[in-house]
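Batch 3, record 17
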Amino acid sequence: MTTDVTEAAALADSIRSVGLKVTEPRLAVLDVIEREPHIDAERIFRSIRISLPGTSVQAVHGVLAAFSQAGLVRRIEPAHSPALYERRVDDNHHHIVCSACGAVEDVDCAVGHSPCLIPSSVSGFQIQSAEVNFWGLCPNCQTA
Amino acid sequence: MTTDVTEAAALADSIRSVGLKVTEPRLAVLDVIEREPHIDAERIFRSIRISLPGTSVQAVHGVLAAFSQAGLVRRIEPAHSPALYERRVDDNHHHIVCSACGAVEDVDCAVGHSPCLIPSSVSGFQIQSAEVNFWGLCPNCQTA
DNA sequence: CTCATGTTTTGAGTCATTCAAAATACGGCT
DNA sequence: AGCCGTATTTTGAATGACTCAAAACATGAG
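Prediction for the assembled complex:
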């Protein structure tokens, strides 16, 4: 549950490496995201408030905004869900969401790197990125 | 700007065909979505309030909820945008959004019907649908 | 150790949407 | 053609997720 010293140092290093100051709230937030990917701001807040009694949800949003902008975490926004955050940031992977319980898992695209991500007609658009979300039932919800 | 009689009748028919009652607000909303796809609730409201002075945004949301549930319109929720509505509902097409101005265009997947939409590993999920959003710059925003 | 600047706190406000109760209108039936 | 039950809209309030702003505070460069 608790982070050991070397782990904390690693987190601090990643924060410093993107040019941000290392603070308690930032360490705590990054730690939670690392431990539980695809988590939303509210749940991050509930997770860190035990060790950081003075924190607020707004503070968490502030930290997350800084992290996202710095490229330290990725923010995903599946339909019908608040924004979720994860640390896998450099590979363009996608997600599968359980339409029943909301569980989220990472998915690598089947056809290689980004093949079907070059659509036939783009109406003159200059494509920058693609976002793919699968919807389905997770193993648990299939039986229930 | 105004809908002629046969057009109105066609709209009424599609509404009836999904088992919903035909009302002024519903006709107006469906008409606007047909005329301007990828429009949000607020803009639909502003568009119909001229001919329907008594309407409210909540009413529009009500109509849209009924339409979506009945499968008459499709609701899409791109990141950083309110929900958008469109009438193309039976083909699984995707969208490209301008990251500068928010313009949205339809996109058919390049590799056929839904090829890369079968991811390699699905963690035991039973896939129901896939949602693909491209992000880029529209022709206008490329020059500016 | 000190201080400027970056962060967090605190509190309020916004946007998109939903909920609930009362008023109203659609359309099947006579 | 008119009536009535029920679906729909109106009206008003409330929610969830997030943003904004000012004041208090902490980090880390010097």
